[in-house]
Amino acid sequence: MDHPDPQAKPYHHGDLRRAILDAAERMLAEEGLEAVTIRACARAAGVSPAAPIHHFGSLRDLLAVLAARGFGQLVARLDADLSQSGHQGDRALVGAYVAFALSAPRMFDLMWREDVLNPAQAELVAARSLALGRLQFHSQTAIGEGDARLRAIRSWSLAHGLATLLLHGRIVTALGGPGTGLETKEDFAALAYDLMFVRG
Amino acid sequence: MDHPDPQAKPYHHGDLRRAILDAAERMLAEEGLEAVTIRACARAAGVSPAAPIHHFGSLRDLLAVLAARGFGQLVARLDADLSQSGHQGDRALVGAYVAFALSAPRMFDLMWREDVLNPAQAELVAARSLALGRLQFHSQTAIGEGDARLRAIRSWSLAHGLATLLLHGRIVTALGGPGTGLETKEDFAALAYDLMFVRG
DNA sequence: TGTACATCAGTGAACGCGCGTTCACTGATGTAC
DNA sequence: TGTACATCAGTGAACGCGCGTTCACTGATGTAC
Questions:
Q1: Separation of alpha carbons A150 and A141, rounded Å
Q2: What's the domain range around A36?
Q3: Is residue A198 part of a domain?
Q4: Which of A10, B56, B111, B139 is such that its CA lies 20 to 30 A from the CA of A195?
Q5: Is residue A186 part of a domain?
Q6: Does residue B117 sit in the same domain as residue B183?
């Protein structure tokens, strides 16, 4: 046979870095952050435990690169949902932000878990600052009174707080429940948009 | 000598449960969550590692009881700051909530770290639901338009999001900085109150 | 006031755990000439 | 087109780590009679 045996594992993988990240992302979503270890990623990719270290340097750096992916996904979602929202940018922003958090809860959590990842990792720094710039941009596309920066802080805080509390299940427990019309996370996600219209 | 030697460590401590919690709280504040281990608490209290287990059952339960303390402290702060705030309850609430988070950042973080504590621990369940009830109460003391429950969700989300983002240092990085008038966490804490007046 | 006994509080040695990381190495690839 | 050699990608065995928890135990306290 002059063609290589397709069963034979080649010594060089070809795209191991990506394969390891894919495995990490899947394990994060399905089994949680604690399941994402150097050794588990290596097992999932079929390589030795030293291979991920070779590509990422350490677990903290691997998790940072994974979180960078998360910020990239957030940006993609914001851009897709808000491309034609016009004046209502800051309102739609809250909805899109919360929707992202609910669709990838463990990734969203990881993105803020600076105790467990290397917050100075280069890819993460780049992806995060890009995402935060986008947040600021979208929050300022609305016409309204007041300091644009204040509006940005308010939109982001509201979105982040609502997303976080929803993921903890606390809002449903404390303020929702049967008969209240607020029973599922989806009810609250839909509500996110309305929140921006509440006047104090 | 017919009085007991004050140097001699008595076999029974007298108030070991409280002493362990005190040690845990101090280590949490000074060294971070990772420093709070069964063995470290035991060392700090001068007992064997099995003693904390005897009182709390497990590390997850110990941390839950510690978080229950945190919710108690939050309630105390809210009640103190808001006792005579009149109509502006929901606005002062955001300020008080953020001030608490900034004054005890690691405790605030622990209170929401359900991956690391036992969220069903009895003391924690009681303290948390008391605190959430207080939040709801204070957010509804203001006169204003709209659904009271929506207003409560908005106030709490805004407070929680702002507190969380401030603790991550992200708002200062993204939107503040030298020359912006928003440089320190204190600047932002003062701002929390103002945020409630922004109109969209 | 004593005594017997149940219960509570804490001991200290030991176990197993899977982990991240290191190390000297080998297999494979690409490149200069 | 071939060859020499540097560089890159991955191996696999080993190390040390402090941890949470268990266990059979002992010292101390309180209570019934």
A1: 13
A2: 1-57
A3: no
A4: B111
A5: yes
A6: yes
